[in-house]
Amino acid sequence: MAYRKTPAEIQRLEAAREHLVACATSVVAEVGWAQASVTAVADAAGIAAGSVYQHFPSKAALAVEVFRRAAAREVAVVGEVLRGDGDPVLRLRRGVEVFARRALENRGLAHALLAAPADPKVAAERIDYRRRYHTLFAEVVHEGMAAGVFPKQNGELTAAALTGAIGEVLVDPLGGARDETATGDLIAELTAMALRCAGAPTA
Amino acid sequence: MAYRKTPAEIQRLEAAREHLVACATSVVAEVGWAQASVTAVADAAGIAAGSVYQHFPSKAALAVEVFRRAAAREVAVVGEVLRGDGDPVLRLRRGVEVFARRALENRGLAHALLAAPADPKVAAERIDYRRRYHTLFAEVVHEGMAAGVFPKQNGELTAAALTGAIGEVLVDPLGGARDETATGDLIAELTAMALRCAGAPTA
DNA sequence: GTCTATACCTAGATAGAC
DNA sequence: GTCTATCTAGGTATAGAC
Q1: Which of B64, B75, B183, B189 could form a disulfide with A154 if both were Cys (CB 3.0 to 4.6 A apart)?
Q2: pTM
Q3: How far apart are CA B178 and CA B104, in angstroms?
Q4: What's the Cα-to-Cα distance from A39 to each of A42, A44, A73, A112, rounded to whole Å?
Q5: Nearest C-alpha of chain B: how many angstroms from A3?
Q6: Nearest Cβ partner of A164 from B153, B154, B164?
């Protein structure tokens, strides 16, 4: 009887856990948190419901892990753009574009992250998630004010407003834009709105 | 055995129902939808849990009634202002002020209406609720565009964005403004942001 | 380690006494 | 009509076989 797991064992377990998280993410993106029962998730992963508890102590823990992974990805991508070099106005525009495009490409996941009813533990994560956007947007707004391209304003408030505005537009049926042209138009209007919101001079 | 209820009976039942709705609204404002069990609501109303079902066929039906009443009040008040006479810019400003002030005066209820986790039936009502704000804001934005005080834009998108922006700011801890001065500042910043968002020339 | 079967808990809903 | 006590369903979590 081994006192330590062999590397192979560890890797296999890790892989099983990853697979479970990935399948759970898909299920959540498709049916939302409320319908993503342990049974449904386990079925998707091809394991028995009870086996889920080999990898996570509770359903909530799994849900939180699913949320964190997906949220971290989105924030990283948007943050990369918002924190890049150059004109704050351009960065804000491109950040909103990236935010929107990714959300429209995976609506189910975006809805799960931004709006879908979730249990309290996940809801708490969501607050953190939105706050990370607040922080990112606030940085750009502050830099823009410092550079004189945005008027004096409460940067934190504008940042929260941007997060809420973008989320509402993307979650709304307005996101009913299906074809590529309509999506492009939606994103163009959305970025224009975001720039107005921060007070960028109208192009 | 009476084939029709007497007027007095009807009135008494109606009153009991109203009382139940009012108490349920208070409970929801205090603890949110998730914690507002039938038992908790019945306790607050001073009746037994089973008696709730004399007035509503299900918990969801009661919850929906609670939501509809409160939502209708808020939309009516804000709509009154947004649809008043005069300058669209001023109306938008005052509409946002009223929205915010009422939300900050009853944070629990505002949170329940705008953001608190709720069951699917209530969530569906919330979409309607937010859409009513969209409609109201869209009207003002369109009138402003027609009057030449707002630049050309997608009015529906701006309206959705305004709803999301205001909601996010008010629900956020940012609404941590406690004293009257801080509240006033918050509202001033919020209205300024809303006007920028619609493209009103900066004052 | 993973499965099957099941225990258990929560909360909504109902039946029958008063 | 209202209350008490109970039933039920849905879904999480666990126990024990393999």
Answers
A1: B189
A2: 0.94
A3: 9
A4: 5, 9, 26, 19
A5: 45
A6: B164
